[in-house]
Amino acid sequence: MDLFEYQGKDFFARYGVPTSTGVLVRDPEAAVEAAREVGFPAVVKAQVQVGGRGKAGGVKLVRDEAEALEVATAILGMDIKGHTVHKVWVEHASDIAREYYVSFTLDRGVKQYLCLLSSEGGVEIEEVAKTNPDAIARVHIDPLEGFTETEAAQLVASAGIEEVSRVGVAKVLLQLYQAFVEGDADLVEVNPLIVKTDGNVHALDAKVTLDDSAGYRHPEWEAYRADMELDGREALARSKGLNYIGLDGTVGIIANGAGLAMATLDVVSQAGGRAANFLDLGGGAGADAMANALEVINTDEKVQAVFVNIFGGITRCDEVAKGIQEALERVELSFPMVIRLDGTNAREGHDILRGLLSDKIRVEETMVGAAKTAVELAKKGER
Ligand code: GDP
Ligand code: MN
Questions:
Q1: Which of 22, 269, 331, 380 has the fewest other C-beta atoms within 10 Å?
Q2: Ligand 1: residues within 6 Å at CB?
Q3: Whose CA is nearest to atom 11 of ligand 1?
Q4: Where are the alpha helices (H) located in 160-218, listed in sequence order?
Q5: How confident is the model over 71-107, as pLDDT tens digits?
Q6: Residue 282: band (very low, low, confident or very high) from pLDDT cuts 50, 70, 90
Q7: Cα(203) to centroid(ligand 2), Å
């Protein structure tokens, strides 16, 4: 689960990482009230899960109530890289002396954590990596040994952090590491980590991804989950218990099994198309799941064709075919459908599907063939 900045700051606060306290609001009048509460100058920050908000005009300093009103009115409702701003975070503006970059991630290749630290924060780290790679210091951390004070001190020195701030920055790195590990995050990124003019070190931004598999030991994550903004399709899919992720292509995907669903996205892309979603029906793939899946995909207006890719293992193809038949009796399709059905009892499954075939409903023998047909149909766009 990716957190919004305000949630990331709440997460940091649990582990003692210093941040500015602030107020989350959803309308301009409340933003003015919040700015008065935190004290001017204040900063109004768009809460969307995408980077580069500052550049897009979604982060602004305000000196008084009139400015707060004007800025909050402009930012709320703004579109930032396809994300609509529904809420803003208002905090007291910090006096910045220095901006650094720090992140903790998993480096799966070496089975260790990786910490990156750069003295060139506040700008896109990808840009620094290109133009000045030496400005990024890195250290691998053995998860069994943990991150030691000595390692933190060495990292801070090798990143070229100015002498007076080294102790303070190293301390915050250790706090962030604790948040990362104890908080079961997959990513913690702070850009910028600032040194204030009073010398205090402080996380000015927060990008946190939590490891959903650890959710069972974090009841406090429920509040984060409740605040997530799902798009309409995802909300509907969740209410129907489907494993669905919305994407922005034109080929709807229905597959049984997460691995097959991923492979289906790949073949659609190899066939020159773009998937409209990821959807894993799970094991059973019966009529209910199929009908629910079709209903969700029907609501996606970008979809021009749907590719149903089923491999019968324990699930038998004739059962799946019956499920498709029953689902089609319940849901009226608004796009053509291409079915690939293979595996246990495939022949019996195809015997059932034969009775359903039309211009709109086709069967292909192979996964690649089905992907090509679905992409062609989607390009024709006869919805
Ligand atoms: P991002 O653009 O989405 O990464 O949003 P950030 O939270 O990182 O803010 C972008 C930039 O706005 C920062 O790099 C700062 O330069 C500036 N900024 C944000 N908050 C403050 C603040 O409290 N005081 C000052 N002076 N600048 C701020
Ligand atoms: Mn940032």
A1: 380
A2: 43, 45, 51-54, 59, 61, 93-94, 96, 99, 122, 191-192, 204-205
A3: 54
A4: 166-182
A5: 999 999 999 988 999 999 999 999 999 999 999 999 9
A6: confident
A7: 10
Helix (H, G, I), strand (E, B) or coil at 141: strand
Give 23-54 pLDDT, tens digit per residue: 999 999 999 999 999 999 999 999 999 989 99
Q: CATH number for the 21-92 domain, one of 3.30.1490.20, 2.30.30.100, 3.40.228.10, 3.40.50.720?
A: 3.30.1490.20
Q: Would you state the pLDDT for residue 230?
A: 76
Asked if 294 and 325 count as a contact pair (C-beta separation under 8 A), the reply is: no
Rg of the chain over all Cα atoms, to the nearest angstrom: 25
Calculate what percentage of the chain has a pLDDT beyond 90.
Answer: 83
| 182 is known as an active-site residue | no
Which residue's CA is the closest to the ligand 1 atom numbered 14?
122
Identify the CA nearest to 366 among candidates 349, 345, 343, 344. 343
* CATH number corresponding to 96-221: 3.30.470.20
Total-model pTM: 0.78
* The pLDDT of residue 367: 97
Note the ligand closest to the C-alpha atom of 52: 1
Q: Which atom of ligand 1 lies at the shortest distance from residue 123's CA? A: 14
**Alpha-helix residue ranges (DSSP H) falling in 208-257:** 221-226, 232-239
Asked if 364 is an active-site residue, the reply is no
Domains of the chain, by residue range, sit at 21-92, 96-221, 232-382
Residue 63 tokens read as 């000196």
| 45: nearest Cα among 11, 90, 99, 93 | 90
Cα of 30 to ligand 2 centre, how many Å? 24
Q: How far, in Å, is the centroid of ligand 1 from the Cα of 207?
A: 13
The alpha carbon of 199 is separated from its chain's Cα centroid by a whole number of angstroms, namely 34
232-382 folds as Rossmann fold (3.40.50)
Residue nearest to atom 12 of ligand 1 (CA): 54
Select the more confidently predicted residue: 119 or 231: 119
Rounded mean pLDDT, 123-146? 93
Q: What six digits make up the tokens of 361? A: 């409903």
Instruction: Establish whether 122 is an annotated binding residue.
Output: no
